[in-house]
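Exercise 7b. Backbone tokens:
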């Protein structure tokens, strides 16, 4: 960089030098706060009257408060590596973060406000991110990763459906928007993990990289695309349950096959790797649970959903944040030992939540333990990575 650029960089607060810094930190803090409030409200210890209702707030905020912030933080950071152009920072990043923070405040405290006001602020975040992301790719003349722009806009449409359910008092709209969001993010996770997991595994274990099988990738991702499209256009209501069970089961097996080829057993000495592998395994687990439910077995939709959300999304986010936060601040990819404990805590919390309906005693007891594990895991991340995310790069480079 030119010396003037370096001076401008040094004048910036470190928190505003790359999108992952504020969005990872505030996203992780928000997730543990939101989960803690959810647990206290479930237990009857506090009363919350958020926008919509308590269940809607929990569903919406874990997806569009927490997960969306991390997705945007990741994309607006990765685009600099992909293009070589300076990514969003400084003033634009500050405004984007403030929009996200304002939406979180309105969702929690804006229950008495007109729904269109709350929705307008909340719906602004992802399109703004898509604009910032897309213009960098277009400036660089790259098209491969433009795929993520329509993904962000599709997520906005799903978010609008959730808000429409509240404003029009049609809960089915909200449920439709929520499920569409889960399937779309699951598809994105499968795409991204298919790109990076073999590379991360080979580099981290010093073993040969597993070459992809194009037909297997196309079959696995094609099945997930089909599931998303069927849900998005409400075609699942017209298809026999057994046919949907077969589709979920086929997608589960194909995704499992992709993962087995990358050899998780090579990663057991590298927490940043085995945590990411286990996160990916929750995708076929969630698909298998949806297949079991469609086949008429005693599996609740909530159980299947949490395998994909708390399991695949939550664990993948913690693993990726721990990795990206080190790599993009000029540090070695060697997290503190407490992060291995955080990964174990989170995975145990997910298993408790997914298995709760079959465990003895009251489900609320297991939910509370799962919530506690989530809060502790993301609390560890916030404590360990606060100085990493709020100070300049360790290697003295910009960013």
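Sequence design result:
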């Amino acid at each position: 960089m030119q010396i003037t650029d370096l001076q401008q960089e040094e004048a910036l607060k470190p928190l505003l030098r790359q999108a992952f810094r504020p969005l990872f930190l505030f996203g992780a803090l928000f997730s543990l706060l939101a989960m803690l409030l959810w647990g206290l409200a479930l237990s009857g210890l506090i009363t919350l009257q958020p926008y919509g209702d308590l269940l809607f707030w929990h569903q919406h905020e874990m997806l569009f408060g927490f997960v969306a912030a991390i997705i945007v933080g990741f994309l607006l950071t990765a685009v600099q590596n992909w293009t070589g152009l300076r990514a969003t920072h400084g003033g634009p990043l500050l405004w984007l973060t403030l929009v996200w923070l304002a939406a979180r405040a309105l969702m929690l405290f804006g229950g008495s406000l007109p729904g269109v006001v709350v929705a307008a602020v909340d719906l602004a975040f992802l399109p703004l991110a898509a604009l910032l992301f897309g213009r960098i790719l277009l400036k660089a003349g790259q098209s491969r990763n433009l795929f993520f722009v329509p993904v962000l806009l599709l997520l906005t449409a799903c978010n609008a459906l959730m808000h429409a359910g509240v404003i029009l008092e049609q809960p089915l709209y909200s449920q439709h928007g929520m499920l569409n969001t889960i399937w779309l993010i699951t598809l994105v996770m499968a795409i991204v993990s298919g790109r990076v997991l073999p590379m991360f595994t080979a580099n981290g274990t010093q073993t040969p990289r597993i070459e992809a099988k194009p037909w297997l990738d196309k079959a696995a991702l094609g099945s997930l695309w089909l599931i998303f499209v069927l849900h998005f256009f409400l075609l699942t209501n017209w298809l026999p349950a057994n046919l949907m069970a077969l589709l979920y089961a086929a997608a589960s097996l194909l995704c499992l096959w992709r993962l087995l080829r990358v050899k998780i057993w090579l990663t057991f000495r590298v927490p940043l790797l085995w945590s990411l592998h286990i996160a990916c395994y929750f995708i076929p687990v969630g698909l298998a649970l949806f297949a079991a439910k469609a086949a008429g077995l005693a599996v609740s939709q909530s159980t299947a959903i949490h395998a994909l959300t708390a399991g695949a999304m939550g664990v993948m986010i913690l693993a990726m944040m721990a990795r990206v936060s080190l790599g993009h601040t000029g540090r070695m990819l060697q997290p503190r030992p407490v992060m291995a404990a955080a990964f174990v805590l989170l995975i145990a919390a997910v298993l408790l939540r997914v298995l709760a309906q079959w465990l003895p005693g009251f489900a609320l007891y297991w939910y509370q333990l799962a919530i506690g594990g989530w809060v502790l895991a993301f609390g560890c991340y916030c404590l360990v990575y606060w100085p990493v995310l709020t100070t300049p790069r360790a290697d003295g480079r910009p960013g």
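Instructor comment: DSSP finds 13 helices and no strands in the chain. Residues 171-205 form the longest helix (35 residues).
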